[in-house]
Model the fold of this input.
Amino acid sequence: MKYQFECMEHGLFEVNQPMLAEHTAECPVCRAKAQRKYSVLQWLWANTAFRPDGSYRQDKDYACLKG
Done:
């Protein structure tokens, strides 16, 4: 999953990380520790597409799709 980070000196950049990885990154320019930027839309999407264990939800997980 792609996450957005912000370096105080060089601005925003994106990093691909596994969902359950520790969300830390270094700025690609100066190698300083960067702060992860949280997005409400990203949080809403992740909570609907993934189970609490990080695996993808399937049709059987939704009551309205059960036969």
